Automatic annotation (TrEMBL):
PANTHER family: CYTOKINE-LIKE NUCLEAR FACTOR N-PAC (PTHR43580:SF2), OXIDOREDUCTASE GLYR1-RELATED (PTHR43580). Belongs to the HIBADH-related family. The keyword Nucleotidyltransferase does not apply. Residues 14-161 form the 6-phosphogluconate dehydrogenase NADP-binding domain. This is 3-hydroxyisobutyrate dehydrogenase-like beta-hydroxyacid dehydrogenase. One of its GO terms (molecular function) is NADP binding. It comes from the Bacteria. GO terms for cellular component: chromatin. One of its GO terms (biological process) is transcription elongation-coupled chromatin remodeling. Pfam families: NAD_binding_2, RedAm-like_C. InterPro entries: 6PGD_dom2 (IPR013328), 6PGDH_NADP-bd (IPR006115), HIBADH-related (IPR015815), HIBADH-related_NP60_sf (IPR051265), NAD(P)-bd_dom_sf (IPR036291), RedAm-like_C (IPR048666).
Length: 304
């Protein structure tokens, strides 16, 4: 079931189900790396360019699943995957399903049971790059689930990017995905709000970025986030160099400055409320990172 590539490696046949921007990029990368590639998409015309490059267009889901040992699914979500593969009958038996849709941890856990009932190996994955970066060696792809399935197919998965295995809990890939995107959106919003704040005094984004990014990397990323991660694991937040009470003062000033300058103030206000919650819980004399204790808990209604 493999194809000898000019590199000397055997190339496992791969079936790619779903040819949106991401699925099409995955199929193109498999083709570029010499994998015999079968494709299926609800709207079949999206396979035209891939067929021109050498892909085989399956006319049914069963034909796509039957074409080889490994099926990559990259559609809108888990519900769509179940809907599509419901038509595969028992053809999944003995094959490996790699699911690269976005979703939630409970959906990933349920998908393992679903695949196991059909006799298929299962790996859950998360793609941490946009379609143009698929196929580049440094592009991060996260996987979780069966270590045996991952080890067996690591080389094939490396055709689309750098495969990183997170552990046997199948929900880890989508959980990391949510966590990394959480960090990305929060950081982007921080920069955008800050740029709007100085923009209220006619400072351009370019001018601000020069100061802000040069300050942020060494002062926040390197000396707080990277250095303090072990202290988060220990729950150790000494307040000798600055307390949460002192930081609340800063958050109040950011909120008030936003109001005064006529820019949106919900984002700093929410950060202020989280710090206030931590102080109510007794962390006022600790350093700012003690808000981690609040983030570890489910959201509580404010006291009435
Ligand atoms: N694009 C990115 O930058 C990116 C990055 C990381 C992860 N992802 C993830 O990759 C997955 C695919 O993303 P995408 O960008 O390719 O586009 P998408 O819009 O999320 O998914 C498009 C694919 O889903 C199929 N689909 C949607 N509803 C369907 C249905 N009811 N029945 C059958 N097929 C259906 C589409 O088929 P038709 O072509 O027939 O509509 C197409 O193949 C998503 O889970 C996304 O979150 C995307």
């Amino acid at each position: 079931m493999t194809n000898q590539h000019s590199s000397g490696y055997d190339r496992t046949p791969v079936s790619v189900i779903g040819l949106g921007p991401m699925g099409a990029a995955l199929a193109a990368a498999f083709l570029d790396h010499g994998h015999p590639t079968t494709v299926w998409n609800r709207s079949p015309q999206k396979a035209d360019d891939l067929v021109a490059k050498g892909a085989h267009r399956a006319s049914t889901v069963i034909e796509a699943v039957s074409a080889g040992p490994m099926i990559i699914v990259c559609v809108k979500d888990y519900e769509t995957m179940h809907e599509i593969l419901g038509a595969a009958g028992d053809t999944l038996n003995g094959r490996v399903l790699v699911n690269l849709n976005s979703g939630t941890p409970s959906q990933a856990r349920a998908a393992v049971g679903w695949a196991t009932e059909r006799g298929a190996g299962y790996l859950d994955g998360a793609i941490m790059v946009p379609p143009p970066l698929v196929g580049h060696p440094g592009s991060v792809f996260l996987y979780s689930g069966s270590p045996g399935v991952f080890d067996q197919h690591r080389q094939t998965l490396a055709s689309v990017g750098d495969p990183r295995y997170l552990g046997s809990d199948p929900s880890l890939a989508v959980l990391y995905n949510a966590a990394l995107l959480d960090m990305m959106y929060a950081t982007m919003n921080g920069f955008l709000h800050a740029t709007a704040l100085v923009g209220s005094a006619n400072v351009s984004a370019v001018e601000f970025a020069e100061h802000a990014l040069g300050w942020f990397m060494p002062t926040v990323v390197d000396s707080v986030l990277a250095e303090q991660a072990p202290e988060l694991d220990k729950g150790n937040y000494p307040g000798d160099l600055g307390t949460l009470e002192m930081n609340l003062n800063a958050l109040e000033h950011i909120t008030q400055a936003s109001v005064e300058q006529g820019v949106h103030s919900d984002q700093p206000r929410l950060m202020k409320e989280i710090a206030e919650r931590a102080i109510t819980d007794g962390y006022g004399g600790k350093n700012y990172l003690a808000v981690f204790e609040i983030f570890k808990q489910a959201t509580r209604e404010p006291p009435t």
